[in-house]
Amino acid sequence: MIRQDLAPAETRLPAGTFTLRPVKPSADTPLVHAWMNDPEVARFWKMAQPIERIDAYLREQIASNHSTPYLGALDGTPMSYWELYRADLDPLANHYAARPRDAGVHLLLGPSGYRGRGLGAQLLRAVSDWQLRIDPYAGQVVAEPDIRNTRSVRAFERAGFRMTRHLDLPEKRAAFMVRKRTG
Q1: Helix 51-63 vs helix 25-36: angle between axes, to the nearest 10 degrees?
Q2: Is the pTM value of this prediction over 0.90?
């Protein structure tokens, strides 16, 4: 689990200043609900649900012993939802040779204007750098985007992740992506 008090400092990217902060369900549920119900997002996240269910989901993530939800902003505008987690403690660990302290990442780019611009790769690089920096024992960051989500898979690859194989997970066929610590 990534402690909620370990929010990274602002990161300057070519696209602007990116900040990441823990989700606050009371304030953020309407925004995350709108993003989850966007047809392009819903196709892969499968979370097009009523606002009460999204609120409960966010609270479940916060209460989790291995996952923390975050909201990302670019130049102060909220534009992404993140789940940063200990992959070795997640059910995902049953589908690959998990290593102690493996980090995991899920990303959702909210407003459609932020998609298809190459921004996902910049954000994934910055966030996975941060994950490896705050946990010196994590040797890699893993992800498992739906293989049909070719834009997401490409963004992970451009961010330094390598697809190692396909995984047949209960809810999808996934591209198993790994970014190893270097140096």
Answers
A1: 120
A2: yes
- Tell me whether residue 3 is in a domain: no
**What's the CATH code of the domain at 139?**
3.40.630.30
Q: Distance of CA 156 to CAs 25, 75, 79, 173, 176, Å?
A: 27, 22, 18, 16, 10
Contacts of residue 108, defined as CB under 8 A and 6 or more positions apart, other chains included, come to 35, 36, 41, 45, 80, 81, 82
In a domain, 6, yes or no: no
**C-beta neighbour count of 129 within 10 angstroms:** 16
Instruction: Give the model confidence (pLDDT) of 139-179 as tens digits.
Output: 999 999 999 999 999 999 999 999 999 999 999 999 999 99
In a domain, 55, yes or no: yes
Owning domain of residue 87? 11-180
Instruction: Over range 20-42, report the average pLDDT.
Output: 96
Torsion sign across C-alpha atoms 100, 144, 32, 54 = negative
Is residue 63 within a helix (H) or strand (E), and if so which, with residue range? Answer: helix 51-63
Identify any residues that bridge with 105 across adjacent strands, giving them in sequence order.
84
In-domain check, residue 103: yes
Number of domains in the chain: 1
Hey, what are 160's tokens?
């330094």
